[in-house]
Amino acid sequence: xxxxxxxxxxxxxxxxxxxxxxxxxxxxxxxxxxxxSGTTLRLETKCHGLHGLAHFxxxxxxxxxxxxxxxxxxxxxxxxxxxxKIIPESILIVHDDIDLPVGSIKLKFDGGDGGHxxxxxxxxxxxxxxxxxxxxxxxxxxxxxxxxxxxxxxxSKSDQQSIRQVLLQAEDILxxxxxxxxxxxxxxxxxxxxxx
Length: 196
What we know:
The structure is a single chain. The protein has one domain (7-193): Rossmann fold. Helices cover 36% and strands 20% of the residues. It contains 7 helices and 7 strands. The protein has helices spanning 25-37, 73-83, 117-126, 147-151, 157-171, 174-178, 182-193; strands at 7-10, 42-44, 49-55, 60-66, 91-97, 105-109, 132-137.
């Protein structure tokens, strides 16, 4: 049994112009959880982001969407974790991932930043890689020079549907994450989504 998840952070860029872009896929997941649990996300200056406390049947979990830009995500995560006394091993960072195909999703612990500026800043601020990541596949544009433009643009309608679908499936593992049954959560999620 590992540490139960106490803070779920959906990475994003702030502002309406970025709301539907691929880079904001992490925030979509947190918005889904907030909506499903009837949690209001409010701007919390001490957390540098939109924060809410979600109540589930037997667990309470902090939700956060940083209001900093992506490459400053660590500032928000560190501030929120410090204020609410949450250890890195109980944090789940939800983010877009160009190394995974659209419609796939992976849960992992530890590891590098994979070139993701949000993760890079979080690792730097927390001074550890020992936290959970929920990687949302958004596909790759094919050329590394096109990555920045690609992540800051909206996915096609069918890609968006695929992404939204796996985010819904990922919500099913929340009870396992909250009870600290992380390996079971990984197994369940990867079995459900591998055939999509």
